[in-house]
Amino acid sequence: MNGIVKQIFSGLIIAGICIGMVPIGVMAKEQNHDTELIDNVALEAGDENQSLNDGAKQSEISLNSIHTGDYWYDTIGGGIRIVAYTGSGGNVDIPATIDGKSVLEIGSDVFNGNTSLTGVNLPNSVTNLGLRSFYNCPYLDSVFLGNGLTTIGNGSFWGAQALNSIIIPSSVTTIGYAAFANCNALTKITFLNSTLTFDGQVFGTIPHLTIYGYAGSTAESYAYANMRPFVSLPASYVDVYYSTHVQNVGWQSAKKNGEISGTVGQGLRLEGIKILVDNSEVNVVIQYQTHVQNIGWQPMVSNGTLSGTTGLSLRLEGIRVELDGVDAGKYDVYYRVHAQNYGWLDWAKNGESAGTEGMALRLEGIQIIAVPSGSAAPGATAMPFVSSLN
């Protein structure tokens, strides 16, 4: 009897040693991923060679990692990879540079399971989203992907239950396995790259998804093969350029197609803006008007004319933007502003008001993008404007 007890006790000691050799946090995290994958993502039997865990894990904080502000990062060729996020969540603007180095990648699991994250804005510098980078962020409802992004990794947005629309820019060439699986509120996704490659499990079993893309594209082929509704986009596109006059800075260099103009987190007011479109194949004119401190709504102007003021120290408080011309009905123009005390408000569309009115709050930043009519919105659209006059 004593011999059996000794054998059992010895076995328990050996098992304890083996388990102790595995980092507890890593073991628990991987077990959680495996359980969630089995319980929540419908995978076909033939897909055993594909997994949300494929590839080398990149985002662990190491002895060489550097902590600055809300981020930990590693230095890689040409820039840095963010490996951890320590901020408070909400709408997060990923910086284009940290410590003077270009942010090139969002590593694996950086925002995994973040229940305070509601929005993310990627700069054009980011080229790669690692495995599960925004995995299981249930309240993430607004995602703007920069125009430099090329790769969306496996499971990147798995479980973003609040996300209802997203635009995949033309720069993206690869979307990984189950990248948008379990995003059950997602109803619109727009693909601006005709040759983008992805497999049949990228969306899992999302129930009410409509795919927007170009005729003859891989997105169209996927939609028909998987019995998803497909809407064909017009072949031509519209580029939107804009520049803002910023307190203590003056005119900034022109930004394009959703890039941030102005500042974020510096408490500087926008004072003026110029906007124009550039595409000789499309007959459209862009029109815009701003709500200015002590003045109110100024008259509508178009194609590069100043709206707002310079040299008067007056803040912009609101803006409206719309398209006109023969082809205007083929496109939607979306825009959103970063407003004092609110941060990023939601996206306005086609002449709607964005910003605030009657509240003496400054605009600090703006994003503008034109997309084919009916496309997915760049992000949430519920609250683009706040007024005390209503």
Q: In summary, what is this structure?
A:
The chain is mainly beta and 390 residues long. Helix content is 11%, strand content 34%.
Overview of this protein structure:
This protein is mostly beta strands and 390 residues long. The protein has 3 domains: 2-40, no CATH class; 66-232, Ribonuclease Inhibitor (Leucine-rich repeat, LRR (right-handed beta-alpha superhelix), Alpha-Beta Horseshoe), CATH 3.80.10.10; 239-387, no CATH class. The chain has 3 helices and 31 strands. The strands form 6 sheets. Strands 1, 2, 3, 5, 6, 8, 10 and 12 form an 8-stranded mixed sheet that branches. Strands 21, 22, 23, 25, 29 and 31 form a 6-stranded mixed sheet that branches. Strands 16, 17, 18, 20 and 24 form a 5-stranded antiparallel sheet that branches. A hairpin with a 2-residue loop joins β1 (66-68) and β2. It is globular. It starts with a helix and ends with a strand.
